[in-house]
Design goal:
It is a single chain. This protein has 974 residues and is α/β, with parallel strands linked by helices. It is 31% helix and 23% strand. The strands form ten sheets. The protein has an eight-stranded antiparallel β-sheet with strand order 13-12-9-10-11-14-19-17. Strands 37, 38, 39, 40, 41, 42, 43 and 44 form an eight-stranded mixed β-sheet that branches. A seven-stranded mixed β-sheet has the order 28-29-30-31-32-34-36, sandwiched between helices. A hairpin with a 2-residue loop joins β9 and β10. The chain is elongated, with a radius of gyration of 41 Å.
């Protein structure tokens, strides 16, 4: 016996073919299908239960008791691999390909990938490309398809397609395909890997085929052969068995794979008429293991048109056309009650003729012979359609069904009906449609987009009665109340201590701000009431979101010390993870106000043991080198809060702050003594040791500095001015032994008010500062002759190396103002590991990818000078000197003492020896002065100091910004 797991016309078609072969059959039917013709044609009929019975695999298999095979028809479960596999597990032959082939070809995305792997063109949609076609991954019949021409229409189309596909096939997945205009829809019919023929299905209404012609007319023979070969190649690649179809879009001489249908199709009949192959009989014989001859013949032309019901009713008259070359496949009969729950196909008219003109005329004649009453149909539409020239039409062919009454604006299920409205549900959302006249659908019906709902006019609407815009509904009032974060007592305490609240700092930082997770509360519901947690732990002590600073978006977050001492709770960790992920995805800088006491042991709503699987620290550290990270601290910052702070590129600390890897409790718990919070990491420790980059007097100043710092990574400005550059001519004294103020030089050289120095209290022999020249942000390093004579010690080298990493990571060109006698040497210096620290600066400079410019102000001696030049005088984009410049492999005095020691020692008279020494130093100076060095082209020029800005602006090429990701793995925290 054969179970026919379908309904309507296809069930009738299969049942008749089985009867011709002497195969006994079982039909299934839903409650509203009890009077359907297929129920009476089977040897046995089994009633199904539920809302979607034809998709219920278990019920269908139970109905197959005593059967040896199952025919799925088309639609419903015909391409469902799980159904085919379940049949096999029950010992039933599935009339179709294997489950593995169904999984591959039934998933249109996988089928497209297969075609592409075989070199067959597909219509890939590039990101952001329009127009596109939204298509259901599974199924067919034009269901779950929408053309989208503008980005703003995409979400709605996707939702509608998912709803329709889910209702029709039980699978709501969709994908995007490039929309190819003015193309022909050509199908190739297969049995196994053999081509039976092709057909043109280009004339469509709302992506559902209306007219099919076989063979496809006006097709170049070479193109036809290529289409047949591509279809056979796909079938061979998967070892295809049974009846199937491969669909293509054809534009000119090009063709593109559309999809493969591993099943019988509605339009198979038009190919049967010209090939002489009974495809359903072939399916059954193959399933029963019989010998089958499916060699196609070439028998003229055939045309098929689909007669659809446009609403429900009872057939009171049903006269069908006949005569030579006319075939009608239908499940209709007089007295049949046609519902609207399923596909509207009522009959297929298939005509044959010796040529296409004869076939079309015969189709026109046959349409006029139909007499259908009691159920409205599209017959008049079909008659008018065939009066037009449809031969060679493309998918752009204008097919418009005559408007009559109110139609469904979307696919969905009818969930409510009143005399003047129909409520449709799609994707769990209900849509009210106003109607007039007799309602043509019932509750429970599944309607397709465009299906008539009532004969009179109407409109698609939502509940949109005139409302008072100032009225606050209760649901909104509840939300607004939860967003009232005003806590006057806590704010008063902060203000009394000359501080600000977390929200005040965020508001001052950001011109606009949207908060993420503001409604979160501490994960302590097992020990405290929700009401108390809402009151005492707003936002779980972490104000976090996306804001705008200097016109550009950033991530801003602040621990709230007024909530559980700014400790790190489960929910605020989750918020950090969320915002860190957004920062990574969208390349957003992060500003973190880090005041707080570290981990919180009091959270209870979790199953963790160690808590070491927390991902926040890893996620934040991964941002290093990708986006600027700014840490701001006021008050106490210990443990985990300090780790996040220390991960930042820059730390801005307010006077009175304390920073430590452990607070008093942790220190005491480790047996390391008892200390007050004020004793741990005060700024008089953390500034000279290099932890703090910028010290400020107040949180207000801290926010201003954070804004200013971010501006250097947000591009150039056009509003700038500068001091009189002629002042630089006198900045370095003529007496080469006299010190001078390097910061005054920097302030004069840079745009007015644009200098932001980092780590001023650490590594003092080198100044590191963000500056602007003609509005363009730069990173500047400079030796300070007032500290160690400008010699570079371990701290200065570390400071400089880290600053160069920062510049390189974020594409800031570097300007080096050099005046150094070299690296610091001597036993005391070696105790600070100078060999490693000083070479760290050399290695960093040598691996910079940003433009580098060198300006020698005075001394350029030895390896220290080379380090200030990124490794060599030939590395920078320009290497110039002021007139006061002097060069050499080491300091002039030292070079003379070492190089001429024997000669000087031989002079016994001390006065004569000093005179000779001074002469040698003067000679060395003349040899190493900038003009002489430039004469042998070891540097590019000796310039007027007033021209320094011109050199920087002209010769220092802009850095090429990275498009995404990182240039460097990270920026060293030290």
């Amino acid at each position: 016996m054969l179970l026919v797991a379908n309904r309507g016309e296809v069930a009738v078609r299969v049942l008749r073919a089985a009867a011709d072969l002497g195969i006994r059959t079982v039909a299934v039917y839903a409650g509203d299908d009890a009077s359907s013709l297929h129920v009476t044609l089977a040897d046995r009929a089994v009633a199904l239960r539920g809302d979607s019975p034809y998709l219920d695999i278990d019920q269908l298999l139970d109905a197959a008791d005593g059967c040896v095979a199952v025919h799925p028809g088309w639609g419903f479960l015909s391409e469902n691999a799980a159904f085919a596999r379940a049949c096999a597990e029950r010992g039933l032959t599935f009339v179709g390909p294997s489950p593995e082939v169904l999984e591959l070809l039934g998933d249109k995305q996988r089928a497209r990938s297969l075609a592409a792997s075989l070199g067959i063109p597909v219509l890939d949609a590039a990101p952001g490309e329009f127009p596109v076609m939204v298509k259901a991954v599974a199924g067919g019949g034009g269901k779950g398809m929408r053309a989208v021409h503008a980005p703003e229409d995409l979400d709605g189309a996707v939702e509608a397609c998912r709803a329709e596909a889910l209702a029709a096939f039980g699978v709501g997945d969709v994908y995007l395909e490039r929309l190819l205009p003015s193309a022909r829809h050509i199908e190739v019919q297969l049995v196994g890997t053999s081509v039976i023929g092709d057909r043109d299905c280009s004339v469509q209404l709302r992506h559902q085929k209306v007219v099919e012609i076989a063979p496809a007319p006006l097709l170049d023979p070479l193109l036809r052969k290529a289409l047949h070969s591509a279809a056979a190649e796909i079938a061979s690649a998967v070892g295809y068995t049974g009846v199937g179809t491969v669909e293509f879009l054809v534009a000119g001489d090009a063709f593109f794979f559309l999809e493969a249908n591993p099943r019988l199709q509605v339009e198979h009949t038009v190919t049967e008429m010209v090939s002489g192959v009974d495809l359903v009989r072939t399916q059954l014989l193959l399933a029963w293991g019989g010998d089958v001859d499916y060699t196609p013949a070439s028998r003229g032309c055939a045309v098929q048109v689909r007669v659809n019901q446009t609403s429900g009713g009872v057939l009171s008259s049903f006269a069908l056309p006949s005569g030579p070359g006319v075939r009608v496949d239908t499940h209709g009969y007089v007295g049949y009650r046609a519902g609207t729950r399923y596909d509207g196909l009522l009959a297929k008219l298939v005509v044959h003729g010796e040529d296409l003109d004869v076939a079309l005329n015969r189709a026109r004649r046959a349409l006029r012979e139909f007499r259908i009453e009691g159920v409205p149909t599209n017959l008049e539409f079909l008659k008018s359609l065939l009066d037009r020239d449809i031969v060679g039409a493309t998918t752009d062919f204008a097919v418009e069904e005559p408007a009559s009454g109110m139609r469904a604006p979307m696919a969905g299920t009818v969930v409510d009906v009143t005399p003047d409205s129909v409520v449709l549900e799609a994707m769990k959302m209900q849509h009210v449609v106003r109607v007039s006249g007799e309602v043509l659908v019932s509750v429970g019906d599944t309607v397709s987009e465009g299906q008539p709902l009532a004969p009179g006019p109407g409109e698609s609407t939502e509940d949109s009665a005139e409302a008072d815009p100032s009225f606050v509904r209760p649901d909104l009032a509840e939300v607004l109340a939860r967003h009232d974060f005003d806590r006057p007592e806590s704010a008063a305490k902060r203000h009394a201590a000359c501080g600000r609240t977390a929200r005040e700092n965020i508001a001052d930082l950001c011109d606009d701000f949207v908060e993420y997770g503001g409604l979160a509360i501490a994960a302590q519901r097992q020990r405290r009431s929700v009401e108390e947690l809402i009151e005492r732990t707003p936002a779980d002590g972490m104000v976090a979101g996306i804001g705008v600073v200097n016109g550009q978006r950033i991530v801003a977050m602040s621990y709230d010390y007024a909530v559980l001492a700014g400790t790190q709770g489960l929910r605020n960790h989750q918020k950090k993870d969320r915002l860190f992920a957004l920062a990574q995805q969208e390349n957003l800088p992060v500003v973190l106000f880090a005041e707080g006491g570290g981990g919180r042991p009091g959270d209870t709503d979790h199953s963790m043991v160690s808590g070491l699987d927390c991902g926040s620290f890893h996620a934040f550290a991964r941002l290093s080198g990708q986006v600027p990270l700014v840490g701001v601290v006021a008050g106490r910052c210990f443990a985990g809060n300090a780790v996040l702070l220390g991960t930042c590129d820059v730390i801005i600390a307010v006077e009175g702050a304390n920073i430590g890897m452990g607070g008093p409790a942790m220190i005491e718990g480790g047996g390391l003594g008892v200390f007050r919070p004020e004793d741990i990491g005060p700024l008089d420790v953390q500034i000279p040791n290099g932890v703090v980059d910028i010290a400020v007097r107040s949180e207000e100043e801290a926010v201003a500095v954070a804004k200013n710092y971010l501006s250097y990574f947000q591009g150039a400005t056009t509003d700038w001015s500068c001091a009189d550059q002629r002042l630089l001519r006198h900045a370095v004294p003529e007496n080469r032994l006299r010190a001078y103020d390097i910061r005054k030089v920097i302030d004069t050289l840079a745009d007015t008010g644009s200098v932001l120095e980092l780590r001023r209290g650490f590594g003092k022999a080198v100044v590191t500062a963000l500056v602007r020249v003609e509005g363009r942000p730069l990173a500047l390093i400079a030796n300070d002759p007032n500290v160690l004579g400008g010699a570079i010690d371990a701290g200065a080298a570390d400071k400089c190396a880290r600053f160069l990493q920062l510049a390189d990571a974020f594409d800031l060109p570097v300007v080096s103002l050099t005046d150094t006698p070299g690296f610091m040497v001597g036993p005391d210096a070696e105790r600070t590991a100078t060999v490693r620290h000083l070479t760290r600066m050399v290695v960093t400079g040598a691996n910079l990818t940003v433009p580098f410019g060198l300006v020698v102000l005075r001394k350029a001696y030895g390896l220290g000078a080379q380090a200030m030049a990124a490794g060599s005088l030939k590395v920078p984009q320009f290497a110039v000197s002021w007139p006061t410049g002097e060069f050499g492999p080491m300091g002039l005095e030292g070079a003379v003492k070492l190089g001429f020691k024997r000669e000087l020692d031989a002079i016994e008279d001390p006065q004569e020896r000093k005179q000779r020494y001074d002469q040698m130093v003067a000679a060395a100076y003349e040899h190493g002065k900038a003009l002489n060095v430039a004469s042998v082209f070891e540097i590019d020029d000796v310039i007027d100091p007033a021209d320094t800005r011109r050199w920087i602006a002209t010769a220092l090429a802009p850095a090429t910004s990275r498009s995404q990701g990182k240039k460097r793995p990270f920026i060293d925290t030290w």
